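ok so heres the complex, two chains, lmk if somethin looks off
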Amino acid sequence: MTTTAIDPRSREDHDAAGERRFDELIAQDSRIEPRDWMPADYRKSLTRQISQHAHSEIIGMQPEANWITRAPSLKRKAVLMAKVQDEAGHGLYLYSAAETLGTPRDQMTEDLIAGKARYSSIFNYPVLTWADIGAIGWLVDGAAICNQVPLCRASYGPYGRAMVRICKEESFHQRQGFEILLELANGTEAQKQMAQDAVNRWYAPSLMMFGPPDEDSPNSQKSMEWNIKRFSNDELRSRFVGMMVEQIKVLGLDLPDQDVRFDEETGRWQHGPLDWNEFKEVLAGRGPCNAQRMERRREAHEDGAWVREAAAAYAEKQVLKTAQAA
Amino acid sequence: MSEANASATRITPGNALRPEDIALLEAKPSDAVGQYALWLGDDALILAQRLGWWISRAPELEEDVALANIALDQIGHARSFLTYAGRAWDKTEDDLAYFRREPEFRSVHLVEQPNGDFARTIARQFVVALYQWELYSRLVDSSDPTLAAIAAKAVKEVDYHRDHSIQWILRLGQGTEESRRRMIAGLKLTWPYVEELFTDHPLVDELGDAGVRPSSLRAPFDAAVQAVLAEADLDVPQVPGSVGGGRLGRHSEHLGYILAELQVLAREYPGASW
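and the predicted structre for the whole thing:
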């Protein structure tokens, strides 16, 4: 048996049998595994999607961590800490899933720090009040779940399996967010206003998390052919609006959108116009917190360099010691 | 078996002990036991508050997870101890955490110390974890069944904190020149606050078998510290001990800022529930 490491990319050379097998697996809606042959574009597109998803989890820790030290009760503080910790865990599974496609985690981290990689734009908005922690859980995690549940069936095995676990934890986060808002909505007048204000600010950005309208989303088609993406951006967005319409009633708050209605003809929920110009601006780095989020990630990475070097040097010395003792 | 014993037994072996359970206990601690629970609860609370800062700033993702875990355990211990303490005076954990003033806190200066760099945080973690492990592994035999039950859960968790900090002391002590330099500096900055942990106060005499005499923990603590530092080829810092005073409500200059951040929102909306 040979244990030589194989660069997975070398297997992309003309491999007619591999390609046939890949097409078959996709046609059967079955799973592609790391050692299977796959088209270079499939690998590239997945690496981009999974690493962006991982980066989003990691950057997404920052806005919520911002409230850990100020959480208004010890129970809420514990819940919030656990949530941000889950996000670090999600980042870890996703980086591991992306690594199975041949890009090491260090490289992905470098790309993020260098500003070459993207992460979800939503995390470039500021988290101004405690109610924002509720709104993020309810709306942002809610939108993420709508996006991610279908990804549990993504054709790439390691991604799909990572998403199963992530979605379970995200559902928990969404309920916790809802509970925060519910408590505020049933609290004092000032608390209720805080909750409504947070919903007002996070509603549109969370709707835009599904990406541009279908007619402006040219990359989606290929992703759907490969059984990575299962539903279009607009389809998922409409589903999300439908969920929120019901849940906001329980909260006793209002969605900041007069145009929400169910369209019998298309069978979809409609919403008011979204400011796609703002979306593009934030994506281009001109959001309220882009610079801050990047600086913080860079700082943590650079400040931690000596620790990682020490751990590596120590591990190496231990290996030498064991070898010498043998 | 007394009612207090019965309740504590229900929540001890194998069952999760939650602050919510403690709040429902029949048992009310004496004023002395309540004060003692404040010592332990405040240490855990302020440490958790300090550690919480690291989440999203750690040197490696795995360490974000690890430090968050330790902070979560500490906040859990704080909630249990404070809930129990509050039973003495009809206060909730949140009344005690959010609406006491600085001199009413009973935390030691050690947990109030700044995070500094990762080595300084690890030095503080090393001292706290070894101390808490020695303490809780004796508190499980407390004559107060609730304190014993809280300690029984906490000691298992603190055992991991101990392991975590020891592994890092070894890595940083013997990793690179820079990590060694920083580890030595971190230990030196931390060591003045060690002595306070083992100072006896009159309260200890009032507690009888309910509490653990701090001075009795010094020898096993020193032995454990020596063993680890020797393996890491590090010395126990020879620095003068700071005078302390946390158990009497005389704190470091850091605590005011820590509480300002911890309490700001709750105090902005007094009487609100969250």
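quick notes: The CA atoms of residues 110 and 137 of chain B lie 20 Å apart. thats all i got rn
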